[in-house]
Every structure is written in C-alpha cells, then in structure tokens.
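To whoever is on call:

I kicked off a structure prediction for a single chain this morning and the downstream step that reads the tokens threw a length-mismatch warning. I double-checked the sequence; it's 239 residues and nothing unusual in it as far as I can see. Pasting both halves so you can look.
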Amino acid sequence: MVSTASPARAPYARVKQHLKDGLAAGRWPAGALMPSEAELVAAFGVSRMTVSRALRELQAEGLVERTQGVGTFAAPLHRVSSTLTLHDLHDEIVARGHVHAADVRLQRAEPAAPALAAQLGVAPGSTVFHALIVHAENGQPLQCEDRYVNPAEAPGFLAADLTRITPTQWLFQHTALWRAQYAIEAERPTVQEARLLGIAPDAPCLVLVRRTFSRQAPITLARLVHPGQRYSLQGEFQP
C-alpha cells in the first residue's frame, strides 16, 4: 500500500500529488496508461469517489486524459505545455492593435559561468545559448530580453529567426515545457539595459526573471526588463 502519512492533506490531494509527482519524474511517459481507479483505491485505502476527484482535477489541469471504459493516460506534452500561462509580449502588442518589432542584438553560443550553469543544470564552462533582444511597440522600446537556453533541451535555438518569432513562441513550439518559476521586482536597469531601452540609468523598471523546465531539466533563464512608464501588468480575476 502507498504511504498516506500526511494528516494535514485531504485524501484526494494525496492521490493527486502522488500522480503529479510520478508524471514529473517521467514514471508515465506521454500516452502511457496510468493506474486504474481500482488500483488507486487499493493502494491508498480511499473511496472510489476520492480517487475520481483527484483524476478529474488532473484532467482539468491538462495533465491526464481519461477515456470512458478504457482508462487514464498521461497527457501528450503539448497538452502539458498548454497549461502554462506564459505571456508573450508579441501577443500583448498585437492584441492592442499595435506593431511589434524585435531587434536581435545577440544570438550565440557561450561558455556558462558557474552561477548560470547551476541555474540551467549544466556543467560550469559548458556551452549555453545566449540571446539579447530589444522588443519595440510601434517603434518604441518596450522590453529588453536577456535569455540563456540549455542546448540539451532546445538544440535548434540558434537557428531560430528571432526577428520573426519570439523566443517564448519558439520554445512553446519546440520544447516540452512542464513548469515555470518567476519573480517580479521593481529595479533600476543596468547600464546596458538603459542604453538599449533609451531610458535614464535611474529610471524605474519592472523586471521579471523567469526560469522554465521540462520534465528532465531547466530549459531557459530569462531576464525581461520593462521601462516602468511604458509598461504595466494587467489581468482579470473573477471568483
């Protein structure tokens, strides 16, 4: 029987977390048949209703697919990727009816310094891909994107035409995104960022640092810098 020693967690949540952990570890590859409701009931000592709720929530999150009378399957990776909400600047600009342009200042292979290597899960000194891009809206610089990519997860990145497709769009199409981490802070730009964005060195900026992962390893680390007077984060919440 699977250990259920977690009194603070509801029974369905324990079943759900067990299955999510297995998916993250690659225990069930995309399309693989997962444990049946009866097997989970026996393993966790819970009711079928409890197991059914866990599976329904995983299905709603796009992590599994269920076929009546057949079973539950690990979702294809493109379905997993679609559950990540990673906003793309190109889409935001086009949605406003404006024109997006990308000025690619750098797109090359470089040796990884120790701190960067640790972030990307590679050996210090090994090759990583580096792109530096200034994104503009109607000709005005709106974002400085400084991105590093793990070549093992995105080997074709250097061949991408980043003037025609943003790194975010390309990575969605060519990698198996599993999860993301991000932090948002108000900061001053670096000297280089201020120059590229055409702003004063002490101008307030909104800085987003984002790291994405496949099931196996980190994919990319990006620093996205937006002039505070030209950009705002917007969203909508409805209970």
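Update from on-call: the warning came from a stale cache, not from the record. Cleared it. Sanity check on the structure: Residues 11-24 form the longest helix (14 residues).
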